[in-house]
Design the sequence.
């Protein structure tokens, strides 16, 4: 066996009954990722509820409440591996009211699979899911045209659906799109190529998942280290550790090297990287998304929530923010309300100053100045934070351009936010940085 | 040219370290649940990676059911000592004596009883966060678990009312009495765990490797012969060459016949295995919804 070389994270979305659960079950089943006892449990439940027919969808319909209601209600994660790659699937549900779950499942994805029922073609849900994938800047999209067996494996139908997508795709921000005709129920073009689609020359779904290029999905430009934890051993006996002061965090962008000049924000002080610590020894350079501990040449006031950055690509640093958000809570967002905003490792108070617009995902048109943003609404807002935050546009860096809003009192996570690029970046003035 | 590329274990590792450090940054009184099992062995290494050269900024906590394999407890104590970590042990026995946990008529398993024991320990030390080694691939109910899993003042998990988890932004805010369980290994599979143990050259308790043991056939599995539930005359007892894949209590941990004597052997065995590891735990087998019920009640 060769060791899997990397991980592809993907999510599946589609409307109820498009065949998501069947497709995931099929991927696991045909890639031989199911174990005897899982198959046994499937067969047992088939006898009880399925009249003896194995239902692949049962594999992912996990929770009892769902089984009782016969629906998937939350995000479930599945794991499988082939000799080429490891896969993490976020199974995200298709109901209108569950956009928040799709955002949750897709936020870390390299790739999204949007399922379409070949008989129905593009419906509002398909547009909604594609729009969310675009909003989240998921690098790769697969349009899986399912139930091809029910449209007689029609090439013409497949290309009609493709044309329906191509009408609105140019208005979105997705660079890589692949269309695949398949039948999840029978397994055509899922793992094995189908004899029914001689007109289709592309890869099977699994073939595509195994080979799509994801190494460039991480941002290697513009070093960013949001400080998570200050590492101070306070060791009275070990002289080498007595004065040790390291800044620990996961690199959110770029590459850092020993001897490199870095800027610490919001302090605005320039220093150099003296050492890069890891448990496995000191290293000369480190890159996103590694977790490291930096030791700096100068003694600077840095704490959790500070950011250490490379001075080549400068971020914004301000209290006035402009962002796209997805609202995730039954209590709607109203202008003027205060929340906590968590951005990288920094949590600050924030007030929502303006609701700029709301996106109609069915038409991809925006409506200006909405009264409120309700659960599952997507729109642009302005906010003012109590302290400046150091950020990039979400399109440049997913990790330093994203935030969540937390309701005060209940502590519920109520929104996912994507920052628009800063209007001004921090500026250098005689070697000092003005923010 | 350097390749700026992480393999799958390095990805899982940096994700888990990030989560460990978020715990240290966001909580006042965290604890790390350490049983001596393979998952929590990985957790400890990740804690070292997250916090060295400092001491671990949290104590280790173990709920001892009194039905543990002796090999496991010996290993647990030794490993904690090596790390210079503080190890807190609370026993089900003691919880029963204090009336914190009540035994039902005929109840032998300590599975249910470890729940009130853990909750009492959380209260005693006012822990606001417990790091655990659960993985989503273990079981269907776990597949929906978050990295930061919110528990209400009764320690309960509500699968319908979880906080959405977006990007790597974890919401750790709590009101008094509430609690967080954090699972840095959420995205790891059984295979990842063993590959990590191999890469990091981690020691694991001897019962994971092949050994001779008297086993009794019960509920479709080979369970270790023990004094707590001695074999009935009607039950088949055999001397087998076995190992365990996942460690629970001695009365419920299924042994699998295996010649695997090294970590590499185990990895090869898992690669070829056709039974998931929880298939060898009697406590989950009773019903598909068994795990879900226990989790709602505060099981980790
Ligand atoms: N004919 C046909 N039926 C399918 C196909 N994929 C799924 N189905 C059926 O469509 C129904 C809904 O599938 P399911 O996977 O539960 O949909 P979900 O709600 O998207 O998870 C089930 O009865 C499946 O058997 C397919 O490719 N062809």
Sequence:
């Amino acid at each position: 066996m060769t060791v899997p070389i990397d991980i592809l994270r993907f999510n599946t979305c589609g409307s109820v009954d498009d065949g998501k659960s069947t497709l995931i079950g099929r991927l696991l089943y045909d890639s031989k990722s199911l174990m005897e006892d899982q198959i046994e449990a499937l067969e047992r439940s088939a006898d009880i509820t399925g009249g003896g027919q194995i239902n692949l969808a049962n594999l992912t319909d996990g929770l009892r409440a769902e089984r009782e209601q016969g629906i998937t209600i939350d995000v479930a994660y599945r794991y499988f591996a082939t000799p080429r790659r490891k896969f993490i699937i976020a199974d995200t549900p298709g109901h209108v009211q569950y956009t928040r779950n799709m955002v949750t499942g897709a936020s870390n994805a390299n790739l999204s699979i949007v399922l379409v029922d070949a008989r129905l073609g593009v419906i509002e849900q398909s547009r909604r899911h594609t729009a969310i994938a675009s909003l989240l800047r998921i690098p790769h999209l697969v349009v899986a045209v399912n139930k091809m067996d029910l449209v007689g494996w029609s090439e013409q139908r497949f290309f009609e659906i493709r044309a329906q997508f191509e009408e609105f795709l140019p208005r979105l921000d997705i660079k890589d799109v692949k269309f695949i005709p398949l039948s999840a129920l029978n397994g055509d073009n899922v793992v094995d190529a189908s004899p029914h689609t001689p007109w289709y020359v592309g890869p099977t779904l699994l073939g595509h998942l195994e080979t799509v290029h994801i190494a460039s999905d991480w941002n290697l430009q513009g070093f960013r280290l949001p400080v998570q934890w200050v590492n101070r051993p306070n060791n009275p006996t070990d002289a080498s550790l007595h004065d040790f002061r390291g800044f620990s965090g996961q690199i959110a962008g770029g590459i850092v090297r020993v001897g490199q000049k870095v800027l610490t924000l919001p302090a605005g002080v320039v220093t150099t990287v003296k050492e890069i610590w890891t448990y496995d020894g000191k290293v000369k350079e480190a890159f996103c998304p590694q977790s490291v501990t930096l030791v700096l040449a100068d003694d600077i006031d840095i704490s959790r929530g500070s950011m250490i950055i490379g001075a080549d690509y400068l971020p914004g640093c301000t209290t006035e923010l402009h962002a796209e958000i997805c609202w995730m809570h039954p209590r709607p967002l109203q202008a003027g309300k205060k929340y906590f905003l968590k951005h990288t490792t920094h949590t600050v108070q924030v007030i929502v100053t303006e609701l700029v617009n709301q996106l109609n995902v069915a038409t991809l048109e925006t409506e200006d100045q909405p009264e409120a943003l309700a659960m599952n609404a997507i729109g642009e807002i302005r906010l003012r934070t109590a302290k400046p935050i150091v950020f990039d546009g979400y399109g440049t860096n997913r990790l330093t351009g994203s935030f969540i809003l937390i309701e005060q009192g209940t502590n519920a996570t109520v929104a996912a936010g994507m920052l628009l690029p800063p209007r001004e970046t921090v500026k250098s003035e005689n070697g000092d940085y003005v923010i | 040219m350097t390749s700026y590329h992480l393999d799958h274990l390095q990805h899982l590792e940096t994700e888990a370290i990030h989560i460990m450090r978020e715990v240290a940054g966001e909580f006042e009184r965290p604890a790390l649940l350490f049983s001596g099992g393979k998952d929590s062995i990985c957790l400890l290494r990740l804690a070292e990676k997250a916090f060295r050269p400092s001491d671990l900024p949290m104590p280790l906590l173990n709920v001892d059911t009194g039905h543990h394999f002796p090999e496991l407890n010996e290993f647990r104590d030794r490993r904690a000592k090596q790390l210079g970590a503080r190890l807190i042990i609370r026993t089900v026995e003691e919880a029963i004596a204090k009336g914190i946990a009540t035994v039902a008529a005929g109840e032998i398993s300590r599975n249910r009883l470890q729940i009130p024991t853990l909750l009492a320990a959380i209260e005693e030390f006012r822990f606001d966060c417990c790091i655990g080694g659960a993985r989503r691939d273990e079981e269907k109910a776990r597949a929906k678990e978050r990295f930061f899993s919110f528990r209400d003042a009764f320690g309960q998990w509500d699968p319908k009312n979880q906080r959405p988890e977006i990007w790597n932004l974890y919401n750790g805010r709590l009101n008094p009495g509430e609690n967080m369980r954090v699972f840095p290994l959420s995205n790891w599979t059984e295979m990842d765990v063993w590959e990590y143990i191999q890469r990091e050259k981690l020691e694991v308790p001897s019962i994971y490797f092949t050994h001779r043991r008297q086993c009794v056939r019960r509920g479709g599995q080979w369970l270790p012969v023990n004094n707590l539930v001695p074999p009935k005359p009607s039950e088949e007892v055999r001397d087998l060459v076995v190992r365990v894949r996942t460690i629970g209590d001695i009365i419920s941990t299924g042994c699998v016949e295996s010649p695997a004597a090294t970590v590499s052997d185990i990895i090869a065995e898992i690669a070829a295995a056709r039974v998931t590891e929880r298939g060898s735990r009697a406590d989950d087998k009773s019903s598909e919804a068994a795990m879900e019920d226990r989790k709602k009640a505060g099981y980790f």
